[in-house]
Every structure is written in C-alpha cells, then in structure tokens.
Design a protein that fits this description.
Number of helices: 4
CATH architecture: Orthogonal Bundle
Radius of gyration: 22 Å
Strand order of the largest sheet: 1-2
Oligomer: single chain
Number of strands: 2
Distance between the termini: 53 Å
Largest sheet: 2 strands, antiparallel
Number of domains: 1
CATH topology: Helix Hairpins
Structural class: mainly alpha
Strand content: under 5%
Helix content: 55-70%
CATH class: Mainly Alpha
C-alpha cells in the first residue's frame, strides 16, 4: 500500500509542477491545487493508520493493580490535525490566488504570463 501512495504522490506532484510551468494563469492555479492535493496525500501516507486501535480510545485500567493496560498500539492523531490544517490553508491560498488572477486578468486583459510580463515598464 505504501508503494501506491508513493506513486500517486509522485504523479500528482509531477502534474502540479508541470502545470505550474504553463503560460496560462488558470493552468498555473490548477497546478497549485494539484500540488496542494499531493502534499495532503503525502501527509496521509506518512501517518497511515497501522495501529490496532484509534487514537481516541482510552486504555483499560486494571482495578486490582491500578495501572493502565493498553489495548494495543494507538495511532497518532497529529497527522489528522496536520491534514485538516493543510486543507484549510490550501483553500485560503487558492482563493487568494484566484482573486489575484482575477485582478490581473481585468487589469491587463489577458491570462497569458508572457503578455503580462511585456506590459511592465
């Protein structure tokens, strides 16, 4: 399963970088979104659930001994929090990028990177 995650992350990352190098600003924005998705998939692959219990289950407490006996190895909840945070940040960054592309397209009347660069004096 790790090989599938690695291949999918690599392919998405390559597609994202390829789209970032295009001349059309809409394709550049799509490349950013694909790149954000690749990063989220990488986080998911790095923290895949390999334990025997979810992170929110409390261990059994033995009354006679007074010590906690774990039911098994629990997974790390930090990865879930990182993925949720990365999704929120990527949505905010993508919205800002689309807003900037909208302003640039209205101001320069084009979505081509080369034409926008030639208009600068």
């Amino acid at each position: 399963m790790n090989e599938i995650f690695a291949i999918a992350t690599g392919v998405l990352f390559a597609i994202g970088v390829f789209l970032l190098l295009r001349r059309d600003l809409i394709k550049v924005a799509m490349g950013f979104y694909v790149l954000f998705t690749a990063i989220n998939l990488f986080f998911l692959a790095a923290g895949a659930f390999n334990a025997s219990q979810p992170p929110y289950v409390q261990p059994i407490i033995a009354e006679s001994v007074g010590q906690a006996i774990p039911r098994g190895q629990s997974s790390d909840p930090l990865v879930q929090a990182l993925i949720l945070t990365a999704i929120v940040i990527s949505f905010g960054s993508y919205a800002l990028l689309l807003g900037l592309i909208n302003v640039a397209s209205r101001r320069f009347r084009t979505l081509n990177n080369d034409e926008v660069n030639q208009l600068q004096a």
